């Protein structure tokens, strides 16, 4: 925190410095041709919608790293991802609170929601902005944890929510254990839709062969045990995994299997032809 001996001038300089950093950051993102949403604050409601809400619990007062505060419950866009002011609209209140802090007045804890390791401000946006602008590393906060269906992993900006929303739909279509879901990851959002269709198609053929109806849970359980797990094992032994995840490899070889052999069955001959065709390219 810079001190000139004139608190009012100090807070005015702090605000102008924070605004300048926000403008420069936005310019840098544009020059690097990064996605427009990289520097936007994460909206709590959109994150919860993408992950699926299971419940919440109050955790009490905690000391948080300011780096973990990435979003807001507020729908306004007064601050960017690093809580730098995006306009001068918040200047009066920002400087008033900052001046009170410089004069030694007590600052109440902020109020946040926690999703995974991310925090979203319910109350205290200006306090977070001031803390970051003045070089603080932590802040006191009352924390309410939100439990979600899909884990809050890999969320850095708004574009990542699309992947998580497709994963949420996949979990509704294919009910499995948490351990199984952890092994069924794809990077392209459409991959979850394709994987869901693959499970349902496999279940339809399974019911036709057995002449009986199977619910979603049973189809998912049998597909994972009888189709996905042994196929991934064969694909690994044949060195066909590639650079992606196991689920991506499964989808890729499944598409190639049908293109080459017009069959949904797996055999040593299928694996041999897939391996030979891959080496041929």
From TrEMBL:
Among InterPro entries, the record links this protein to:
ParB/Sulfiredoxin_sf (IPR036086)
Q: Could you identify this protein by its name?
A: Chromosome partitioning protein ParB
Under SUPFAM superfamilies, the record lists: ParB/Sulfiredoxin
């Amino acid at each position: 925190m810079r001190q000139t001996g004139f608190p009012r001038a100090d807070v005015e300089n702090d605000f102008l410095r924070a605004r300048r950093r926000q403008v420069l950051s936005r310019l840098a993102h544009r020059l690097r041709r990064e996605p427009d949403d990289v520097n936007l604050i994460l909206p709590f409601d959109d994150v919860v919608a993408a992950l699926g809400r299971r419940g919440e619990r109050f955790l009490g007062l905690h000391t948080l790293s300011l780096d973990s505060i990435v979003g807001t419950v507020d729908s306004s866009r007064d601050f960017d991802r690093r809580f730098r002011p995006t306009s001068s609209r918040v200047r009066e209140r920002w400087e008033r609170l900052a001046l009170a802090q410089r004069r030694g007045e007590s600052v109440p804890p902020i109020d946040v929601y926690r999703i995974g390791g991310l925090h979203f401000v319910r109350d205290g946006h200006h306090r977070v902005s001031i803390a970051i602008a003045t070089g603080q590393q932590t802040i006191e906060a009352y924390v309410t944890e939100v439990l979600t269906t899909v884990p809050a992993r890999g969320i850095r900006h708004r574009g990542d929510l699309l992947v998580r929303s497709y994963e949420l739909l996949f979990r509704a279509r294919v009910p499995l254990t948490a351990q199984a879901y952890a092994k069924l990851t794809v990077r392209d959002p459409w991959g979850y839709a394709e994987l869901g269709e693959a499970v349902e198609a496999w279940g339809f053929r399974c019911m036709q062969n057995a002449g009986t109806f199977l619910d979603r849970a049973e189809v998912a359980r049998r597909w994972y045990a009888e189709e996905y797990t042994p196929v991934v094992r064969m694909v690994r032994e044949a060195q066909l995994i590639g650079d992606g995840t196991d689920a991506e490899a499964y989808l890729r070889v499944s598409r190639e299997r049908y293109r080459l052999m017009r069959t949904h069955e797996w055999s040593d001959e299928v694996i041999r032809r897939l391996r030979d065709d891959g080496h041929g390219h």
